[in-house]
Design brief:
Blueprint lengths: L1 E6 L3 H14 L7 E7 L3 E3 L4 H5 L11 H7 E3 H4 L5 E5 L2 E5 L4 E4 L4 E3 L2 E4 L3 E3 L7 H4 L1 E2 L3 H19 L7 E6 L3 H20 L7 E6 L11 H13 L2 E4 L4 E4 L3 E4 L4 E3 L2 E4 L3 E3 L17 E2 L12 E3 L4 E2 L13 H19 L16 E4 L5 E4 L5 E4 H18 L2 H15 L4
Helix pairs in contact: 1-9, 3-11, 10-11
Pfam family, one: Pyr_redox_2
Family: Belongs to the NADH dehydrogenase family.
Protein name: FAD/NAD(P)-binding domain-containing protein
Length: 420
Amino acid sequence: MIKILILGGGFGGIRTALDLEKKLRQLKNRKFEITLIDRNGYHLFTPDIYEVASAYGIKKDPFAVQLKRTICMPYADIFAGKHINFIQAEITEVNLAGQAVKTGGGHMVEYDYLVFALGSETADYNIPGVKEYAHQFKTLEDALFINQKLDELSEEFKNGSRTEPSSFLICGGGFTGVELAAELGCCSKVIREKCRLRGRCSTITLFEAGPKILAIVPEKERRLFKERLTNLGIIIMENSPIEEVGPDFIKLKSGHKIPGDLIIWTTGIKPNHLLADIKDLPLTSSGKIIVENTLQVRGYKNIFVAGDSAEFIDPETQKNVPGLAYVAVDQGKVAAKNIFSLIAKSDIKLKDYKPFYGVWIIPIGGKYALAHLWGGWLVKGFFGWIIRQLVDIRYLLSIFSVNKTLDIYWGEVTLFSKND
């Protein structure tokens, strides 16, 4: 029995599991066991997490079931009919020498092949007050908290206990910060109309420590982003590194202090903390795993990495490959192909991972997105949003049946388009 163990059920882990299971079924004379371990019982569709945070005016239940089912995809559904085992557990120890992983319940899971697909965590850069007062924006719980805060603030307007605009301070001018700021801008207009307010109901400020928001975006496209954000009422503050975060304010290194009702931290990621505790795992100074071109961990033929845990330098740019969902998917495909080749005793050379991340589609509030496609082709506005929807549908079809995909997608569209 050949045992393959995958740690983490993000985009890279899911793709590795599904592709490998499909390939291994071809080997009639080999018995195999694929196991995926994740702390949650669902795969989180992070590209739509900003939609959950800003979904205002939806009839709520105590467990937010309606919101959860739009971006939480149970592993039981994804792996239905597949020869893939799922264990919901915290990973407490990885023994590379003994080829075993220990879970929080003390259970030991052995492996012949291991895949690290643990994803990343939010980085606070040791800025005072971030851990205590800034609200992170990475998990389902983070998004639901912001959603609840929107409801609370609107109720204050309705009952007259608040007359001044609420203030949202979004720290981080990357894709995540821009998406969230834009959608909150659209949501703010809806709240103003429903609460029958004459003036603004909120101010939304986007802070970027560097000289420009969206640093990897060409200048022409950055201008389009800034124009759209400004039209939505977003205040953009570039060259504004944060020195301290308090319970209801942030302090910039310039000494300027800005008050806020909700401080949201969308800047920076770091590798999963578990990696640093694994003996003999080769790590870079930033804490990521050192990998070969085949995505094998340096020094280990039977261990692979997919997603944010890998330190993979693009030979063309000499920069680390960015942590994008489709990058993790591509790496998961390569990891699965190479593990299959090793198991099948194939004489072919293992496949090298060739990074590609030149395409991106960023929603900027409502049914409006900016799509940077192959060859630099740019599509903006409603048609950019349509392309984004097609990309989402394509991903859902890669893990679900057509009927299940349409059911999930229709639920998302009918729920999230109310504020558009």
